[in-house]
Amino acid sequence: MKKSKSLAQLFPILCIDEPTGCLVSKNADITAAFELQALEIFAVSDGEYDALHDVLIRAAKVLPVGYMVHKQDLFIEDVYTPPFGNEFLRETNYVAWENERHFSDRPYLRHRCYLYITRPATSPLKRTSGQSSLLKRHLVPKEMQDSRTWAEFVDVVNQFAAIYQDSGKMKLHRLTPTELLDNGEHTGLFQRYFSLSLDDPTLHDIDLTNGLTIAGQRTHTYTLSELSDFPNEVYNSARLEQFSTDSSHFPISTGSALGMLLPFNHIYNQVLLIEDGHALTNELVKEVKRHTSFAAWSKENEVSIRSKDAFMEEVKDRNRRVVRAHYNVVVFHQDPDVADTYRSQTAAAISKLGFKPKLATYDAETLYWSCIPGNIAEIGADNLATCFLEEATALWNTETNYQDDFFCKNGLLLTDRFGRPCMVDPFFGPMERGIIANRNFMVIGPSGSGKSFSMNNLVYYLLAHGTHISLVDVGGSYKRLCTLMGGRYITYEADNPIEFNPFYIKDLNPDEETKDALANLLMALWKKDGEPATKAEEVTIANIVHEYYGAMRHMHDTGDDDSFPCFDTFYAFTRDTYPAIFARNMGSEREFNLNNFLYILRPFHADNQYGYLLNSRKNIDLMELPFVVYELDNIKDHPVLFPVTTIMIMNTYVRKLFSVRGVLKMLIIEEAWKALAKENFAQFLRWCSKTVRKHLGSLGVVTQEVDDLVGNAIVKDAIINNSPIKFLLDQSNYEKRFSEVMQTLSLSEKQANIILSINKGKDPNRPPYNDLALLLGDYCKVYGVEVSRVAYGTFTTERSKVEEIDDLAKTKYGNDLESAVKGWARGERAGGYLPVNAQGVPLLHPNGRPPRPLNGTEQYSRIP
Asked: Where is the TraG N-terminal Bacteroidetes domain positioned along the sequence (predicted)?
């Protein structure tokens, strides 16, 4: 019959001291517990690793001799659960819902990091692991009952925490008694440790029959505690080859190899004991004298003398702090075979670090017991290796997951570099935290990098969160999204030319900003690029606009049918009525050539060449529409229509800035670089980039080629310097000349290394996705753009896929594009068959090649 013991009787923690919140063990060791917020992985530079390492060293140096630091990182496998009850998903359309379904049950690694500072009642060096409280009890030393001991401990802990907090590198949160124990709302610290879970409040059995089994999970423990197992040199960071290139160095902390880079259930314990360097030196002096007397008899004594001399020299001359260190990794899983796989992978990771992996076979139980929060003083002298503080802390895990939430308002659905879905908020959260000063942004993505697809994804989520978007496009990349989102798609066709009406105001009483924008439009139509306007001309045009609306209001009040505001009525007013007003105001031809003004603007009037352009009676509600796409592909080379239309668009956007309140109003210019060469448009961009933030606006510019940026003074001054938000896609084509990109975009070396890692080391087991880098000031991270099949069908601009969806809409769904996209995602094609697997998932190759032949687990899905 198996003999069992009660955990309550053996549990080594006596109580939690209410006044101080400290853990008190049955050995009378006292411990302060913190939760530590580590840095986000894959977003740290070499310099930041060095700075963080310096913080760890400075904090440890305030601890007196005999104190211990126990850092415990818990990494627990979990799966993503979509928030289908969220109001956003209930109210938005099918794309967001399908994306959540796509990521449902996606595995990821949860991480919690705890830091414990312990003042042992008796020196751990006088204990061995065989004296664990799991096996026997201890008496309480008298000094631990002295209030001065507690006061000293609290003071030291506060100093330690202050160094962490003041550095700004990591955040420490002191755990309260209610957080240490299960309070019904969240799982307590000890429940997490004894259940090997972050959510299970149950205290499970610990079975020692066949190895160490905890909560039904088989465990394996590797230790690093013998100096002979250490490599000759230990650094705080290393080069991550999978994200590095020939010209870039991507750093990662050394400890991450046993942290976030172990993608399965494990606990990483890092332990320090502050050693008395002087006492150790004196002991080594005695040993050196003893070795010297025997040196002639053994070469090993000579080697020992040299190593001890070198050690003492480091301590005395360089004032190095001596510590005892221990590290162990506990891996676990319910399936013993899977646990064995984890064991092998952990051994390989330790070996790659240059250490000799040592599997704990006889002392795994006592190691696990000593690493109970607050019980680290039981680790035992036989599990501690003497080394210097700098090397000991270099092995600490200092990174965690991206801190983006699974869901947040104003968020864009992306993934981290492990494939975990997250909602990234580039426009609102960073502004509130003071990371950026405005919401202007740039998107730079060479051909084939997934730029248009990523932009469709961005625009979709912005619209879903209520943003108003005016988008200027050249290439037709947003037609399908515009249709599915109920937007207005404005383009030029021979039988349906592009048309606007900048003069239409519902109440015929425009505000000053609208009148100014209209005056600027008229000036741009009249003057050539670069031709200056006199003050008299500016004043006169502003007066014509003012008098025109006064006349329109009078005509409306008297029931005149010609009171509809448009260019034709404006032109007629300027030609027929304004000359008398001009003369009454003592205007002269020398100050304003009214006939020349009317002559140059005549092509836009009535039945003349461009009479359709500014007289629309249908595009008069653009101020109210959340989504308007201006597709300029057919007129991008037209010498009149293109510049006039772009100016008209800007005029419309300015009016929206001042008329629509309470929502973000975004203007996105996609590949409209011809317009940037126009002086009046450049002036608008300069104004827009500096002013829209005051009216809850955002200017976004999208470009394909770096050459569009390099050497373009207009872009440099008006766009780059005032766009703190930047999205960069794969820049590998420019790797050899990336210094130009760095200079143009004012990138740091850290940002350059992160950007050049885009699409490096992609996971081949994930569905197809592309990386993009998000830059917010000095902040820079790489995310994955991965969506569901339905969203892919909505966002894709690949011609073959677009044609398949359009054909399906025409032949089967009566031009219902939404139904066609959903059907295409299920595998339907116009008049054909598509192989699917047993679950009905289309067998589509990610690069669009024909599907592979069927086998016994697959079937054909007939299109009904």
From this structure: 2-53
